[in-house]
Amino acid sequence: MSSSPPDPGTDRTLLDLVGPALSRLRRRTSGGRGDLTRNLVLNVVADAPGEMTVGGIAAEMGVTQPVASRTIAACIADGLMRRTASQADGRRTVVELTDAGEAERHRFASEQRETFEHITAAWDPTDRTQFAQFLIRYSQDASAWSTRQHRHGRDSANTRSED
Questions:
Q1: What is the pTM of this model?
Q2: Rounded to whole angstroms, how far apart are CA atoms 118 and 120?
Q3: Helices 18-28/8-16 angle, 10° precision
Q4: 3 state DSSP class of 12
Q5: How many CB atoms lie within 10 A of CB 157?
Q6: Comparing C-alpha atoms, which of 105, 109, 130 is closest to residue 96?
Q7: Cβ atoms 54, 72 nearer than 8 A
């Protein structure tokens, strides 16, 4: 049995559905917009390889700095995050999770796991595991891509400012 190459039109049509599917997935597996945004901010801070500033959070979230700042302020007011002086540069202010923020992050993760289990309950166990592995891989690769994009943007800006 010979396999023919995939139809590029079909692949493109399928891939065009990925973005909207990811958006629906995010909306339908959270407790609401507030929870979605809060969870995103908590994860951005927790996943950062080093210190995280308001500007860094805004860049990771793909929003303006005032939008990120309002979300961070709400998290601080709720005791989930705190502002501290940077250990690398005391003139900078960074944000970090509190113990309550870590607990909230774990609560979100448990709810999302339960939702995933309910949604995929009728799936073949192999499909469920493979999808989870691909979703995690996609997330990790998206983070690496985003880091490269930000680095490329800074390098381009530095090159332009040196001209």
A1: 0.73
A2: 6
A3: 30
A4: helix
A5: 10
A6: 105
A7: yes
Residue of 87 and 31 predicted with greater confidence: 87
- Return d(Cα 73, Cα 67) in angstroms, integer: 10
**Beta carbons within 8 Å of 37's beta carbon, 6+ residues apart:** 71
How is residue 78 written in tokens?
A: 């709720």
In the numeric block, which tokens belong to residue 84? 């501290």
CA 17 to chain centre: 19
Q: Residue 136 is encoded by which pair of tokens? A: 């995690």
Q: In this predicted model, what pLDDT tens digit does every residue of 74-102 receive, in sequence order?
A: 999 999 999 999 988 888 999 999 999 99
43-75 confidence digits (pLDDT tens): 999 988 889 999 999 988 888 999 999 999 999
Residues in the chain: 163
Q: Residue 77 contacts by C-beta under 8 Å, 6 or more apart in sequence?
A: none
